[in-house]
Amino acid sequence: MFRRKLSDWSDLDTSSLVELEREGEEILGESPGAAPNGGSGYYGEEDDYDEDPIYIPCTEFYKPQHSGNFFKDGKTLIDFVLVWEEKVSSKKHKTQSSSKGSEKRGQQGRARGKTTYENYRRRYHRNLLKAGLLCEKEQTLSERRSLHYLKLSAPWEVLVYYAEELCLRAPLQAQPNPDNNASDRFLQRLYLPNPLYHHVPNKPLDYYTCAFRKSKLQRFLGSECQATYFTNTQRSRILYEILSRTLYGKRKHAEVGIERMVKEGIYTAAFPLHEGPYELPEYEVAPESLNPRQILYQYWSRWSLWYKYQPLDHIREYFGEKVAIYFAWLGFYTAWLLPAAVIGTCVFISGVLTMGSNTAAQEICESGKKYQMCPLCDTCKNWYISEICPMAKVGYLFDHPGTVFFSIFMSFWAVTFLEYWKRKNATLAHHWDCMDFQEDEERPRPEFAAMAPQMEQNPITGVKEPYFPERDRLSRIVTGSMVIVIMLCVVMIFLVSVIMYRGIVSMMMYHTGNSILMTQAGNIANISSSMVNLVLILLMSQVYTALAEKLTRWEMHRTQSLHEDAFTFKVFIFQFVNFYSSPFYVAFFKGRFVGYPGEYGKLMGMRNEDCGPGGCLIELAQQLFIIMVGKQIVSNVQEFLVPKVKSWRQRRQLAKVRGTQILEEPQRWEEDYELIECEGLFEEYLEMVIQFGFITIFVAAFPLAPLFALLNNWVEIRLDAQKFVCEYRRPVAERAQHIGVWFLILEALSQLSVIVNAFLIAFTSDFLPRLLYQYEYDSHLEGYLNFSLSYSPHSYVSANHTLCRYKAFRDEDGKYTLFYWKLLAVRLGFIIAFEHVVFFSLRCIDWMVPDIPESVEIKVKRERYLAKQALADNQEVLLTVSPSSSSPASCISPCGLNDRI
């Protein structure tokens, strides 16, 4: 026998109340959405414990959409599911909590006493009923454990109340929702077919909207159809808001909200349900009959769709704006990589085709035994420059005038990409009704609430909340910064270790006596050291990310936003140094402190590294290729295998719990519980931002970087789509109007790339020395090789009984020549001119390209006008589309709208 508790709503049908009273139902006197206990905004009482309430399905009727997503009556839609596990005691036949234990509750050391997790859940369930939710409980038993599922649903009155409180948007007027792809419009103008386009069924409609008002309900489209007025994402968002506000213990101990309960193990999971399976049925069905998850799988996440447009409106409708904004940005970024990859590949191919015209390389190859070079190490022998003929030719691929052009192009590309993303983002933000979205006053994080040492009144809400002194937090932040500095020093230690490893391997190759190993000693050392460096980078990334998470938690940031920003800053600073320190060393420090014969600089008894025979740019290209592409391969393998392994382990563990019921077809909530928890978007953004740095900061040395980034992103989009559709539990839909702090990081990287590329061309490339030699001596670079090689000083010759050459602009006494000082002036002048021209041009682009398109501004004004008219008290005519209108929206029946408000 089941019963339920309902709120005493004034607008509830009295006949329903009489019917419920006849069934022995208990009616509680809290109005839906009200803030009991003095308007605190938290739901539930503190000190009374009742027996575990029993539940029956509600009597409110919903039109069935997908089987398995309803209460037992087949009509009440499940909006959220809470899950907990219990061990079964064979002796006493009682259940005990199987959670892993709670975290500490703060410095005051508050103890739970005799209060058990069972009591917390019982009180929480009661308070959810007081808040107006409808509940139904399921249980799966086995010999050792039992699984409990609490299914939650919000009735119409609760949904309406929270729609107004959360400032959800309601539809005023339907309008066409055309595909908004610039490439599609461009090809249509040329009357060319578009292979990227594909039709996705059940595309969500577009509306002019305004903030929802319960008092103006009849003035919104679709208000007659209560069952389908709110989308499932909106319903789950409302449920999550209630779950986050509801008490389960003492308010003075901040025992509030589902997040903290899951963190402490009171519940093992809390999630909204997927809307059915993602697999297609065995029989043929019309595309319009597929559920939203099947549509996303069929028209988005399959590998065969790697070149198709993403159905962003469907993604937003199913996962919310935050996830949709990420995929919109990733798709936009990938599309912009296409021209960069094409031009970069053309620059590389042009280097291959013009390799034969490299006069300096020809002189090296034809020199024979004319130029005897000084030993590359203290125990090495002299060698002839003609031995590096292959490396000299290959080095031209990464150091020719085309790479200079490409670095300038990529500087403009980066800033232009960000400017046009602003426009795209503004268009999406308006289209998805989150342009004016601002995060409400956030509640304290669960860990913060559990560990805060004292309570203080919130000046905004007037509610006493956990409080941590700012002075103590500042001291912790400073201490955490010292830890970051120590970790950065560890990165530098590993960098020095790799440098020494490279020198040792080179010496070993030279002393083998094998002509091939001696010739390729530098390449072998560089490639092997880059691989070792990649392994160290990946290991340090894992260690530091875990450390940064603990440090950020220890700093006691009050809200989740502050916590995420601090964590993002820590991780990005470390990853920037971790990934880019080695390329920066090769680009700007290697070969700068070598000295000259007789006066070599040394580190720990070993001679400082010099650039290889082919120059530092080819070594930089090798490092970038190994680190960037290697990181992408490892990340993609992890993203493909790790979710599948976790999901397999989850299913295996739950199969033991289900026991004899394993042969029965699992329910929707059981299937979703077998999936893994959504891990968020932090790692996805971080990976793309690191990649963005590789293709902009060092692009002068590696013009193929955009191509490899493009290939990776095609795979990345499908991997992420597969995870969200097939592997993850459905996340709670979150609103967002942009990509957050990541855009600021991208802007900083784009500005840094201009400066780094200027220095890279000026000091690392041979472009300016050759240009100056052409201007002063020979336009065809004849004799440049002999001009660029200096003679060893006399003291060094007498000590080694030989005369050798080395690459530098020095005289026989080791002093710099006049050409060196002229070249230094040209280099500094080039850097100043390059930066000023590029930055001025970028400011012009920023000024000429408005952040918000004119068409969007018109729509915003139109929407505000309609909102003003719809919400006016003297408005008598509903703003709906006239049936006689010829617009596409005129065929839409307001009651048939199954879309967002």
Automatic annotation (TrEMBL):
Signal peptide, first to last residue: none
**Occurrences of domain Anoctamin dimerisation (ranges):** 70-312
The UniProt record lists the keyword Membrane: yes
* Residue ranges annotated for the Anoctamin transmembrane domain, each copy included: 315-863
- Molecular function GO terms recorded: chloride channel activity; protein dimerization activity
Q: What is this protein called?
A: Anoctamin
Specify the protein's topology with respect to the membrane: Multi-pass membrane protein
Where is the protein found, in the record's own terms? Answer: Cell membrane; Membrane
* Membrane spanning residue stretches: 323-350, 403-421, 477-504, 524-547, 567-588, 689-711, 739-763, 819-842
The UniProt annotation puts the region (Disordered) at: 21-46, 92-116
Q: Does the keyword Ubl conjugation apply?
A: no
Q: Cellular component per GO?
A: plasma membrane
Q: Which UniProt keywords apply?
A: Cell membrane, Glycoprotein, Membrane, Transmembrane, Transmembrane helix
Record-stated family: Belongs to the anoctamin family.
